[in-house]
Design goal:
With 204 residues, the chain is of the alpha+beta class. The chain has helices spanning 2-21, 183-203; strands at 23-25, 30-34, 42-53, 60-68, 78-88, 96-99, 102-106, 111-115, 120-124, 128-131, 146-154, 162-173. The strands form 3 sheets. It has a 5-stranded mixed sheet. The longest helix is centred in the last third of the chain and has 21 residues, at 183-203. The termini are far apart.
């Protein structure tokens, strides 16, 4: 009996270590991109549809996702940026957020209140806003057009996972934050102009 209990404990430890060692990628169910948001040059919003984070028996583990921006932004042209993470059932202040490997802050805890009408605890969360502008994080995070986000989940109780609802990246740049035309597009445009010139010449 003692052997079985020992084996069971070892399995739980292995599961806990496995959940903590690898970040489980989560995929958005919807993506919106906005170039006309007031106050921001570029906004990308991920809707995760309420995916649960906490990959082992103890409610611990890591989840990750990647925001993208479809243009080249050298680090020195990002004038301001922020990331908003919407999560629920955040019970502790131990859920750290990493941006491209740099630990920034922890997720904001839920606001919890008792409702006499439903005889239950009511949860709300205003979201976690992380400033990614110069002076707040290493600006090398913008170098490759992708922004990796990882949440290291650390809740109180067994199976006490938190829920990821959404993530929004907003950026301002010192240049026009519009996708630059691809080389192939430019080539086709040039060929089109050349063709028009030939046609006009033959008409003369």
């Amino acid at each position: 009996m003692f052997k079985l209990a020992k084996i069971g404990m070892m399995c739980l430890c292995v599961l806990a270590l496995a959940g903590a060692a690898f970040a489980l990628p989560i995929t958005p169910t919807g993506i919106t991109t906005d170039y006309s948001n007031p106050g921001w040059d570029y906004v990308q919003t991920y809707d995760f549809g309420g995916q649960w984070a906490g990959t082992d028996f103890f409610g611990d583990g890591s989840v990750s996702w990647t925001h993208t921006h479809p243009f080249s932004v050298p680090p020195d042209v990002v004038t301001s940026a922020q990331l908003r993470i919407d999560a629920m059932y955040v019970d502790t202040d131990g859920n750290s957020v990493e941006i491209e490997g740099f630990t920034t802050r922890t997720l904001a805890q839920d606001n919890v209140s008792w409702s006499w009408s439903t005889w239950s605890w009511q949860h709300s969360n205003d979201g976690t806003i992380i400033d990614l502008g110069p002076g707040y994080v290493d600006q090398s995070v913008w170098a490759d057009g992708a922004l990796g986000v990882t949440i290291n989940v650390d809740e109180d109780w067994c199976w006490d996972d938190l829920r990821i609802d959404g993530s929004t990246l907003a950026m301002n740049t010192s240049t026009d934050a519009r996708p630059t035309p691809e080389p192939l597009t430019l080539s086709l445009f040039g060929l089109g102009l050349a063709g028009l010139g030939v046609v006009r010449r033959f008409k003369k």
